[in-house]
Amino acid sequence: MTDQRVFALIPPVDTILKQPSLQQTIAALGREPVKLAIRAEVDILRRAMASAAAEYLSLSREVVAERVAEAAVTRIGLEFKPLFRPVFNLTGTVIHTNLGRSRLPDSAIAAMAIAAGEAVDLEYNLETGKRGDRDSHLEALICELTGAEAATVVNNNAAAVVLLLNTLALGQEVIISRGELVEIGGAFRIPDVMESAGAKLREVGTTNRTHARDFEAALSPQTALVMKVHASNYEIRGFTSAVPEAELAAIAHGANIPFVSDLGSGCLVDMARFGLPPEPTVRATVEAGADLVTFSGDKLLGGPQSGIIVGRADLIKRIKENPLKRALRVDKTVLAGLLSVLQLYRDPESLPQRLPLLADLTRSVDDIEKAVQRVLPVVREAVGEEFVTDGLDCKSQIGSGALPLELMPSRAIAISLRSGQSDAALTELAATLRALPKPIIGRLSDGSLILDLRCLRDEQGFCEQLRSL
Ligand SMILES: *Cc1c(COP(=O)(O)O)cnc(C)c1O
Q1: Where are the alpha helices (DSSP H) in 55-97?
Q2: Which ligand 1 atom lies nearest to the CA of residue 265?
Q3: Closest CA to 172 of 228, 218, 224
Q4: Ligand 1 atom, smallest distance to 233 CA
Q5: Cα–Cα dist 274/5, whole Å
Q6: SS3 call for 292
């Protein structure tokens, strides 16, 4: 039988609200969420009292109030924690889609913060005082960097492809090689995208070989477009043949229809100049005769999530007039960040210093090895004698489907099992590192946890995390 007197120890919610320890939280978040948290904690306390009244009877009302207040502060801290946790990306995949792709340069972050915090001339022409166009801020620069006539920006490259197809091929056929019916992570499959955009897929050729005559034979009055999709995340090797872009453009133009190319991770400069594997540039694709080119703003370009469509002015105009454009448009912060990143491309030479993505991609093995030497003792100490911890040659990959077979030599710290130890110890260690306040994310491979240090920039923060283990 619960001693009913114990419940009288719980002060009313409004009294608990006056506890000094709650005032900071109330000032920051308002009274209502704090009240809810207090009620939730009072319920928990009532249940605890009902089952063990004796433990509480000696407490004062003041102490009970303070305990509830403290529990409410903890509860609210959990409820109001920021959406995202910053993590150390030591997976060896530089553009990691699940980890938010690229880190942005400080200039872009500053531009995004201004756009977020103020009213801006997003769609307002300051000269005329009339309505403006949100794309106008970037269009000239995108055209300068790609050689295209016109450009528009949408939510991501997937949106760019959907919008393009829906505008130019609704209810009509799009000819595409069977070798390019790709699936990109996250259920983006070209055949499904076609269908949802309202276009009819007309596949030609075979998986490994497609010829000009295949495209020519497929042309009909129903054909709206000839399309090429960059095989971003796989490669067909061996007995293969694909039709070069210039030839596809000629075939399409011979039939009076546009040739469009989805580059996926389009590059604005030749990556080979930085010692990276070559990727087709947007400019080269435009020069080869593509009437429209779509590419991502946050793959190799290194900007915020966005998709860019460039090409013929008349086609871009039609795309912008499609009501779907409104549904797929980007917000002011993204436009501000993207413009800021694009501005860096005006001086390609300094890109590796100024664009974090390129800094990571072009980081030398020597430099990464120095990082390994600096942090290795700390890692060793933190994980303990249970494991063998050592430097290791490894390969990083660009990620996001870009150049999947081109791996960049890198250096890692490998944490391996001592012989006879069970794999569980390693998965447990990986889980422990993921549970740190700033999680450390590596990759498990062949009985080792590999921490590729290519993307480690905050060594001090990393060591602090490990020391807290
Ligand atoms: C990545 C990719 C897409 C999708 O781009 P998102 O910006 O991720 O939406 C579309 N097409 C190709 C060829 C890609 O590689």
Answers
A1: 61-79
A2: 15
A3: 224
A4: 15
A5: 76
A6: strand
> Residues 104-157: pLDDT tens digits?
999 999 999 999 999 999 999 999 999 999 999 999 999 999 999 999 999 999
Distance of CA 443 to the CA centre of its chain: 18
Structure tokens at 246: 């210039």
Q: Is 296 in the pocket of ligand 1 (CB under 6 A)?
A: yes
pLDDT, residue 322, reads 98
Beta carbons of 115 and 335 less than 8 angstroms apart: yes
Please state, in angstroms and rounded to a whole number, the distance separating the CA atoms of residues 391 and 453: 10
Rg (CA), the chain: 29
User: Residue 253: phi, psi to the nearest 5?
Assistant: -65, -30
The CA distance from 48 to 77, in Å, is: 22
Q: Report how far residue 460's alpha carbon sits from residue 355's, in angstroms, rounded to the nearest whole number.
A: 22
Nearest to 13 by CA among 27, 31, 25, 1: 31
Distances (CA, A) of 194 to 215, 239, 253, 342, 380: 18, 28, 21, 30, 52
Q: Locate the ligand 1 atom nearest the alpha carbon of residue 97 and give its number.
A: 8
Q: Report the nearest-CA residue for atom 8 of ligand 1.
A: 157
For 293-309, the pLDDT digits (tens) are 999 999 999 999 999 99
Q: What is the pLDDT of residues 227-239, one digit of tens each?
A: 999 876 667 777 8
Long-range contacts: 79-82, Cβ < 8 Å, 24+?
Answer: 79/33, 79/37, 80/29, 80/33
**pLDDT at residue 403 tops 70:** no
CA distance 296 to 12: 56
Indicate the length of the chain as a whole number. 469
pTM of this prediction? 0.90
Helix (H) or strand (E) holding 462: helix 459-467
- Nearest-atom number in ligand 1 for the CA of 305 is 7
How many angstroms separate the alpha carbon of residue 343 from the centre of ligand 1? Answer: 23
Q: Whose CA is closest to atom 11 on ligand 1?
A: 264
Cα 23 to middle of ligand 1, angstroms: 48
pLDDT digits (tens, 9 = 90+) for 170-213: 999 999 999 888 777 667 788 899 999 999 999 999 888 899 99
Segment (H or E) for 311: strand 307-311
Domains of the chain: 4-79 (no CATH), 88-96+359-467 (3.90.1150.110), 106-354 (3.40.640.10)
229 lines ligand 1 (CB under 6 A): yes
